Amino acid sequence: MNIVCLASDPAIDAYLKPLHNSHNLTIYHVQNLSPKEVIEKVADAEVLITGPEVTILRRELLLKLPSLKLLSVLTIGTDWLDLDYCREKGIVVSNIHGATAESVAEHTWAMILNLAKRVNEFDREARLNSAYNFSLYKGKEIYGKTLGVLGLGSIGSQVVRIAKCFNMRILGINKSQKPMLGVELVDKITLLKESDVITICIPLNSKTENYISSEEIELVKHGVIIVNCAREKIVNKMALLEGIKSGKIFGYGVETPIMQVIDQNDEYYKYPNIIVVPHNAFNTEDADAKTYNLVVENIEAFNIGKPQNVV
């Protein structure tokens, strides 16, 4: 098969070497390409390996790739590509389900603990303004509190595993309603009302955009910590900021879109109890190895007529 890889990370090369043995593989180290630049490199590809840091795969672009049979994406989420078009045209989309779950779960917990203990906040003020008065930076314990996990998939389940070390009561929403050991499956309202910490582990789609908005913020406990390492748009930004301003939300951790600059005048930056970074939760050496190995497995499975991790 004619395979083209558009990726920003040169480390991918070593992992894709097995594909050279039986396929025509071309690798480009690129990011933020225009549709025209993508078409120039990928026009004859049967298989495309790429991610959203390279380009957004809209219908107009995909129409110009007539040979494409498999889209092997370097992400779990697919909100950056036209999945409907791929299904219409029979283009198989395989993702890296599970490959980054541990890294994202650990990152989620890094944000939870950072916000609870106000680590970034005190560090920043000590560096910039010589802050030293600990009484101004009182935090919260996590042990024995209630955690609400929105989404119990590969990432949410790992967040749950770590939470058990803190002897937490764990509430969860699971689309499949499949039971999970140590988790009380509840409805959305119950989770919002009873959780001390809420983590968002669901994909972004038309049903989950603004899944947490003003009505939901009204329901949460005073002093709740919310962490969103999924997609920024799942939480309505204005509603969230109102919750921060009022003091109802103790702290918020969020990742904004990958490889996009956060404006220095962004509202997030006005509040010391918000941690905001461009999407980076997945970004570990360990997750890279799992991701790139799984890409190879996905392509070889497709090649023998047994596609896997199909979205």
Automatic annotation (TrEMBL):
Keyword line: NAD, Oxidoreductase
Domain of life where this protein originates: Bacteria
Domain (D-isomer specific 2-hydroxyacid dehydrogenase catalytic) ranges: 13-311
Keyword Glycosyltransferase: no
SUPFAM superfamilies per the UniProt record, alphabetical: Formate/glycerate dehydrogenase catalytic domain-like, NAD(P)-binding Rossmann-fold domains
GO molecular function: NAD binding; oxidoreductase activity, acting on the CH-OH group of donors, NAD or NADP as acceptor
Domain D-isomer specific 2-hydroxyacid dehydrogenase NAD-binding: 110-281
Pfam families: 2-Hacid_dh (PF00389), 2-Hacid_dh_C (PF02826)
Keyword NAD attached: yes
PANTHER family in the cross-refs: D-ISOMER SPECIFIC 2-HYDROXYACID DEHYDROGENASE CATALYTIC DOMAIN-CONTAINING PROTEIN-RELATED, D-ISOMER SPECIFIC 2-HYDROXYACID DEHYDROGENASE FAMILY PROTEIN (AFU_ORTHOLOGUE AFUA_1G13630)
Family per record: Belongs to the D-isomer specific 2-hydroxyacid dehydrogenase family.
Protein name: D-isomer specific 2-hydroxyacid dehydrogenase NAD-binding domain-containing protein
Provenance organism: Candidatus Roizmanbacteria bacterium RIFOXYD1_FULL_38_12
